C-alpha cells in the first residue's frame, strides 16, 4: 500500500509541475482550474531570453520573486470548514459526498503538519530549485566568471521562513549548473514584507463581489456538494464558507507532492471560475493596480523598485555585487508588477471589476514563485542597457518607457528611471 500511495503522489506531483509554460508570454501557465494566486509556477525544461545588441555583454542580474508553493499559512481555514461540517453532521445534514470531507481535511492537515504550516511544500522546493537551474543555464558563463573573480551573488529574503527556504532551493538550483558558484550570506530585507493598501473605494468593491449573483450561485454549488439544501439555506455568510473550501482546493495543487487530497470533487470548475474571480477582486484592490487615480494598492512596493535601481547603480559604479536575488511574497510581487506596469498589471478599475472588464489575473501577477528579473548589459564604452523577463519570459517595459534604438527589449537606465519614477 505504501509503495502504491507513493506512486500516486509522484504522479500527482509531476502533473502539478507540468503546467504548460511555453512561448514568450508571462501568462502561459494554464488557468483552466482557476487556482487564482495559488497557481503553482510549473517547472519548464527551459526558458528564453532576448539576445543583447551586438557589442553588449551581461554585467548584472537582479530579481524579485514570490516564495514557492506552500501549505496553508495556518489551520484557521481548516478549523472553520470543520466547524461547519461538524454542525451539519450532528444535524444529519451531510450529503453522501460531504461525509468524506472531514477525513480529507484531516488527511490534508497531516501532510501540512509534516511540512509545517506556511512552509514550502515539495512542489514549492522544486519550483525555486528549477528557477535556479534555468537561471544558471541561461547565465552560467556570467555567474561562473563572477564567482571566479570573487564577486558577490546576494540573496535577500523577508523575515518569513518560506522565503528563506526559497532562497536556499534557488541557490541549490544555481549550483547544480555552476557548482563553483558561491553566494553571499543570506540577508533579511524588511522591504520584502509589506502591508496591503486597499482604499475605502477598493474595500467597497471587495465587499460588493460577494453579493454578485454568479459568485453566490458558485458558492451554493460548492456548499450543496457537501451539505443538504435545508442546511445551506440556514448558513450565514455562505460565500465566505464556500471560499474557505475553495482555498483548500486552490492550495492543494501546491501540496501535490505531499498528499493526494485535491478537494476537486467539492469545487467544480464552473464554480471555481467565479470564486477565483472573487479572490482576484480582493487581491486587485489590495495589492494590484487598484482604483483608477489611486496608488495606495501598489505604492508600498516603491522601496523595492528603489532597491533595484540602487543595486544597479552600484554595479555600474564598479561595485562587486554581480547579482541580487530577492525572495519575497505575493504581497510584494503583485504591487511591484502594478508599480512598473508589467504586462497584465497596467489597467486600473474605476469601479466594478470582473474578468470581462480587466486583464489582471492573480494566476499571473501573484502566482507561486512568480518573478520579475532585470538583466543589465554594457558595451566597451560603458553604456548600459536593461532588459526584463516576467516569469522567465522576455517582456517589454510599459509603453511610457522608450526602448533603445538597438532593440525594442533593451532600455537605457536613465530612461527607466524617468518612466518608472
Keywords:
Rossmann fold, 8 strands, 2 domains, 14 helices, eight-stranded mixed sheet, 421 residues, disordered N terminus, alpha/beta
Query: Could you tell me the radius of gyration in angstroms?
Result: 22 Å
CATH topology of the largest domain: Rossmann fold
Tell me the span between the first and last alpha carbons. 59 Å
Q: Kindly estimate the percentage of residues that lie in beta strands according to DSSP.
A: 5-15%
Low-confidence stretches: 1-27
Count of domains: 2
Biggest sheet, in brief?
8 strands, mixed
- Shape type: globular
Order of helices and strands: HEHHHEHEHHHHHHEHHEEEEH
Helicity, as a percent range: 40-55%
The level 1 CATH classification of the largest domain is: Alpha Beta
- The fourth-level CATH homologous superfamily of the largest domain is Phosphoglycerate mutase-like
Count of DSSP helices?
14
- Class by SSE composition: alpha/beta
Average of per-residue pLDDT values: 94
Pfam family, one: His_Phos_2
GO molecular function, one term: bisphosphoglycerate 3-phosphatase activity
EC number: 3.1.3.62, 3.1.3.80
Family: Belongs to the histidine acid phosphatase family. MINPP1 subfamily.
Amino acid at each position: 500500500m505504501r509503495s502504491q500511495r507513493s506512486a500516486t503522489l509522484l504522479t500527482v506531483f509531476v502533473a502539478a509541475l507540468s503546467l504548460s509554460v511555453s512561448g514568450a508570454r508571462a501568462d502561459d501557465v494554464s488557468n483552466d482550474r482557476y487556482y487564482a494566486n495559488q497557481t503553482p509556477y510549473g517547472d519548464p525544461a527551459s526558458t528564453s531570453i532576448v539576445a543583447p545588441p551586438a557589442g553588449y555583454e551581461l554585467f548584472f542580474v537582479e530579481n524579485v520573486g514570490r516564495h514557492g508553493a506552500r501549505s496553508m499559512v495556518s489551520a484557521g481555514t481548516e478549523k472553520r470548514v470543520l466547524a461547519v461540517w461538524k454542525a451539519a453532521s450532528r444535524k444529519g445534514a451531510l450529503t453522501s459526498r460531504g461525509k468524506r470531507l472531514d477525513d480529507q481535511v484531516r488527511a490534508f492537515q497531516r501532510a501540512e503538519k509534516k511540512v509545517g504550516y506556511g512552509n514550502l511544500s515539495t512542489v514549492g522546493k522544486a519550483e525555486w530549485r528549477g528557477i535556479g537551474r534555468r537561471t544558471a543555464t541561461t547565465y552560467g558563463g556570467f555567474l561562473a566568471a563572477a564567482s571566479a573573480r570573487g564577486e558577490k551573488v546576494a540573496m535577500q529574503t523577508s523575515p518569513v521562513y518560506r522565503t528563506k527556504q526559497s532562497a536556499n532551493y534557488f541557490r541549490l538550483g544555481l549550483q547544480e549548473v555552476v557548482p563553483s558558484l558561491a553566494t553571499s550570506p543570506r540577508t533579511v530585507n524588511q522591504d520584502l514584507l509589506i502591508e496591503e493598501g486597499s482604499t475605502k473605494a477598493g474595500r467597497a468593491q471587495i465587499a460588493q463581489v460577494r453579493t454578485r449573483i454568479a459568485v453566490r450561485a458558485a458558492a451554493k454549488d460548492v456548499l450543496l456538494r457537501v451539505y443538504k439544501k435545508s442546511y445551506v439555506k440556514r448558513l450565514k455568510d455562505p460565500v465566505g464558507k464556500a471560499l474557505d473550501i475553495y482555498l483548500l482546493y486552490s492550495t492543494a495543487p501546491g501540496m501535490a507532492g505531499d498528499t493526494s487530497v485535491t478537494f476537486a470533487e467539492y469545487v467544480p470548475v464552473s464554480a471555481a471560475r467565479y470564486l477565483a474571480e472573487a479572490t482576484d477582486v480582493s487581491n486587485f484592490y489590495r495589492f494590484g493596480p487598484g482604483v483608477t487615480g489611486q496608488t495606495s494598492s501598489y505604492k508600498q512596493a516603491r522601496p523595492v523598485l528603489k532597491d533595484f535601481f540602487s543595486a544597479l547603480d552600484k554595479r555600474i559604479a564598479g561595485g562587486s555585487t554581480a547579482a541580487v536575488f530577492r525572495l519575497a511574497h505575493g504581497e510584494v510581487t503583485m504591487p511591484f508588477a502594478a508599480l512598473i506596469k508589467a504586462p497584465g498589471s497596467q489597467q486600473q478599475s474605476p469601479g466594478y471589476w470582473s474578468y470581462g472588464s480587466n486583464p489582471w489575473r492573480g494566476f499571473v501577477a501573484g502566482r507561486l514563485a512568480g518573478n520579475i528579473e532585470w538583466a543589465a548589459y554594457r558595451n566597451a564604452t560603458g553604456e548600459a542597457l536593461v532588459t526584463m523577463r516576467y516569469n522567465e519570459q522576455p517582456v517589454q517595459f510599459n509603453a511610457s518607457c522608450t526602448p533603445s534604438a538597438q532593440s525594442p527589449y533593451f532600455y537605457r537606465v536613465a530612461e527607466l528611471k524617468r518612466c518608472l519614477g
